[in-house]
Amino acid sequence: MDGERQRGSAPALALAGIAGLLASTCCVMPLVFAIVGISGAWIGQLRRMEPYSYPLTALAAAALAIAAWRIWRPAAQDAEQCELEACRQRNAGARRWFWVLAVLAATPIVVRQAAHLFY
Questions:
Q1: Can you tell me the distance from the alpha carbon of 89 to that of 77, in angstroms, rounded to the nearest whole number?
Q2: What is the DSSP annotation of 50-109?
């Protein structure tokens, strides 16, 4: 049953990751490219994604909520079938990916809120 829960959270985590990356395309990615040393006139074209940043961030948040529910929801069958520590170890990878993607999804929001401090 635990393997089914992890597989059930994988599509939601993937959707959250893709939506988080696309949401940060307009604001965060040009900064990352500049820090890394990648430049060019094409970076200005990334601003076209700006109108979609908030809906994509909301999509990422919804997908993260679904993934969190699938990862951490209590299941009566799981409590009977496995020991508590064994279940935690099997679910640790999904939980780690959840937190990585939560930070990725929160990045566009934080950057937009803190942008006025840098200009």
A1: 17
A2: GGGHHHHHHHHHHHHHHHHHHHH---HHHHHHS-HHHHHHHHHHHHHHHHHHHHHHHHHH
Contact between residue 53 and residue 20 where contact means Cβ atoms under 8 Å apart: no
Sign of CA pseudo-dihedral 21, 22, 26, 29: positive
pLDDT tens across 32-85, in order? 888 898 888 888 888 888 888 889 889 989 999 998 998 887 665 555 556 555
Backbone angles phi, psi at 88, to 5 degrees: -65, -40
How far apart are the C-alpha atoms of 55 and 109, rounded to whole Å? Answer: 12
pLDDT at 62: 93
Domains in the chain: how many in total? Answer: 1
Residue-level pLDDT at 63: 92
Range of the domain at 26: 2-117
Token pair for 9 = 């959270």
